[in-house]
Amino acid sequence: MEAIEIRGLEKEYKNFKLDIKELIVKKGYITGFIGPNGSGKTTTIKAIMNMINIDSGEVLVLGENIFNNVNIKETVSFVGDTYGFLEENKVKNIKRSVSRFYKIWDNDLYNKLINKFNINEDSIYGKLSKGKKKQFELAMALARKPKVLIMDEPTANLDPVVRNEFLEVLQEQMENEDSTVFYSTHITSDLEKCADYIIFIYKGKLILYGEKDLILESHSIIKGKKEILDIDTKKEFVSIKTSGYNFEGLTANKAKAFEIFGKEVIYEKATLEDIMVYYTGRE
Question: Over the chain, what HEC string results?
Answer without folding.
Answer: CCCEEEEEEEEECCCCEEEEEEEEECCCCEEEEECCCCCCHHHHHHHHCCCCCCCEEEEEECCECCCCCHHHHHCEEEECCCCCCCCCCEHHHHHHHHHCCCCCCCHHHHHHHHHHCCCCCCCEHHHCCHHHHHHHHHHHHHHCCCCEEEEECCCCCCCHHHHHHHHHHHHHHHHHCCCEEEEECCCHHHHHHHCCEEEEEECCEEEEEEEHHHHHHHCEEEEEEHHHCCCCHHHHCCEEEEECCEEEEEECCHHHHHHHHHHHCEEEECCHHHHHHHHHHCC
